[in-house]
Structure formats: structure tokens, C-alpha cells
Write the C-alpha cells for this entry.
Amino acid sequence: MISLEGRTALVTGSAQGIGKAIALALAEAGADVALTNRQCEKLDAVVKLIEGLGRKGMRFCVDVSDHVAVKEMVDQVIEAWGKIDILVNNAGITKDNLIMRMKPEDWDAVLRVNLDGAFHCTRAVLPYMVRQRYGRIINIASVVAQVGNVGQANYIASKAGVIGLTKAVAAEVARRNITVNAVAPGFIATPMTENLPPEVHQRMLSLIPMARMGTDCEVAHGVRFLASDDARYITGHVLNVNGGMFMD
Ligand code: NAD
């Protein structure tokens, strides 16, 4: 049984879907969890669930693409809890379109949240992790960064960037006892995927050897493993949680 007793975590985009499942999985293992989301109405309910597990929860209405707000949030968590052991860069958006129809503002918006957001949060927590000589950073990528997909050039570029960021930072901080890994989910049942057109849904299912969508908890369990001491010699890795959709 994985224990994160005494650890503190920050999970971005944690009001729903995979981020919420990650926050709860970390709390179940014993971590106190700070949550952040751009829309924060649903965060109170997640804090209550964390407290119901006997852990502390804290919530911030912060857009991860705002580096000033991110730094303030990290400083507040440090002030309250003294440390951040685990950072999960989960916040993500899509604005799909074929490349020739993709508006530059939709390209920018997706890169700003998915890639710049991970950079801002990583940059804000690292000085504290370096000082304490301990840290676990887990970035949520995507299988489409590994296999490509039609109509998602901005999203795929951002997630491929997240994988590159993971490896670059992993190399930089490895000597400080900080690991940096990515989890690449496949096709997961969350609010992000629930409104896909039926033909897209069917096409995605046909690409999965396990012939079903994954669940947010299945992704969260991969993240929890990488956050644990059992994974202490794993860094710069991309963990596929995809039902066999991509194998390497
Ligand atoms: P979701 O849309 O259900 O949840 C994303 C959360 O991030 C939401 O609560 C949203 O409000 C929050 N968010 C968006 N922009 C933000 C910002 N600027 N600042 C702070 N919070 C912000 O999506 P999900 O399916 O749970 O996806 C979670 C992560 O997993 C994303 O990075 C997504 O790209 C990735 N992913 C999802 C799937 C899938 O099939 N669902 C597959 C691969 C990767």
C-alpha cells in the first residue's frame, strides 16, 4: 500500500475529472492537498472530500497561465504548510480545429494553459523543493502527443512540449533528489471527452486494444505511484495509461 503520510501536494485543474481524482488519490494515501482551478466553484466540494479522508485541503482560484498568481499561490501554500513535496501539473484545455482553420488565439490559449502553466508552476515550486532536497513533479501529457491526431495541432504541440519539459527538468534537478515524470493518459471518460461527436468517440474506441475508455482513477493511480517513494529511481519517464493505445 502506497503511503504519502506527511507529504503535501499541489494539484492544478483539480475541480473535476482527472485532477480531482488525483487530488483524492493522493489524500487517500495520506497527503495534504492544495487545489487550484481557474473556475473555483467546484473546489469547495473537493476540499470537503479531502477533509473527509482526514487530510487537509486548501483551494485557490488561480489561472495557471498567470505566473504572478501562481507564484503567490505557491508562497501561500509554503506559508501555511511549510513545504510542497508533490506538484501535479494537470490543468489542461482543448480548442480543436484543423490547422488551416485554427485561429492564432486558439493556438496561443492552449499553449498558454497546457505548456506555459506547467512551466510557471514548476518554476515556482522548484526553489522550495531544491532547498528541502526532495520533490516529485508529475506532468499530465497525452497519448496524442505520441501518436498524433487530426484537429489537435495546438493541443498536441502543447503536450509534446510537456513531455520535453519533463525530460529537461528531470535532468536539471536529478541530483537534488527531485524526480520529474509525465503520465500520458489515453482516452479517459471525463467532462473533457463527454461531448465528443459519436463518430469521433467510436473511432477512438476502435484504436484501444482494451476496447474501453479509461477512468480518471486509473490515471490517478499512475500519478500516485510516481509520487511515492516506490518510484524514487524513476525520472524523465513517460508512463502510459492508455489501455494499449500506444506501446513503446
Ligand atoms: P477536464 O476539462 O475535465 O478538467 C480540466 C480541469 O482543468 C478543469 O477543472 C478546468 O477548469 C481546469 N483548468 C482549465 N484551464 C485552467 C487554467 N488555466 N488554470 C487552472 N485550471 C484550469 O479535463 P480532464 O479530462 O480531467 O483532463 C485533465 C488533464 O488530462 C488535462 O491536462 C488533459 O489534457 C489531460 N488528458 C485528458 C485526457 C482525456 O481523455 N480526458 C486524455 C489525455 C490527457
Observations:
- The chain has a mean pLDDT of 97.
- The beta strands are 8-12, 32-37, 57-61, 86-89, 135-140, 178-185, 238-241.
